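quick q for whoever's on today - can somebody do inverse folding on this one?? i tried earlier but teh output was garbage lol. tokens:
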């Protein structure tokens, strides 16, 4: 949870605006709490030690962000979100326009996911891994990648020759790495620069 403490002479819109500027978030997500009230010796002047806390729910506010994004695209959808790990969240979208939201090779889906990831991590101190699945595309893609990883690894074990896969985004590379993490006979390495990073599957050295 992002928060700061500071001293102010009054609690007003200017105080809220200052906190929003320091925390770099929308003021609608800030809650102000008085930690201490300070008075001068004669009691004529007083000030406050204030704690500004970012009141942000990753799941609920993440869903609201997606809703507004799709409203701007004039798309109605069913949106759900859940936490799949300590700092892992998954949002699912289902709409009549699923193919449009997915885009060619999942490019539009990836762009929406990056927007949401940047938005969520702007409001939190802890970095979250944010995934979006639209119409089951991600799950289907994961199965395809796992099959590719297994087939390629078997070929590398057989031929003892390294194989370079096509360029993939971070999520797709993670699927390959995870699928082959328990294999003793092969090693997976990410190479190249974004957005053209790819995985090389190599025989393990013995």
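ok took a stab at it. sequence:
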């Amino acid at each position: 949870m992002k928060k700061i403490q500071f001293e102010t002479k009054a609690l007003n819109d200017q105080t809220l605006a200052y906190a929003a500027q320091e925390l770099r978030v929308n003021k609608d997500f800030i809650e102000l709490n008085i930690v201490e009230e300070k008075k001068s010796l004669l009691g004529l002047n007083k000030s406050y030690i204030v704690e500004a806390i970012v009141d942000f729910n990753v799941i609920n506010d993440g869903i609201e962000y997606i809703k507004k994004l799709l409203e701007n695209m004039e798309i109605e959808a069913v949106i759900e979100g859940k936490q799949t790990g300590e700092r892992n969240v998954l949002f699912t979208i289902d709409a009549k326009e699923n193919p449009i939201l997915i885009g060619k090779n999942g490019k539009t889906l990836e762009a929406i996911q990056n927007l949401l990831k940047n938005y969520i991590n702007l409001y939190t101190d802890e970095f979250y891994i944010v995934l979006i699945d639209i119409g089951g595309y991600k799950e289907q893609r994961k199965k395809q990648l796992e099959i590719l990883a297994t087939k390629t690894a078997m070929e590398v074990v057989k031929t003892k020759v390294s194989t370079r896969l096509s360029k993939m985004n971070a999520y797709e590379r993670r699927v390959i790495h995870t699928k082959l993490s328990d294999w003793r006979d092969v090693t997976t390495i990410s190479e190249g620069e974004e957005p053209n990073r790819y995985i090389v599957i190599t025989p393990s050295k013995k």
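fwiw Helices lie at 13-23, 58-72, 98-102, 107-122, 137-159, 170-180. also DSSP finds six helices and nine strands in the chain. so keep that in mind when u check it
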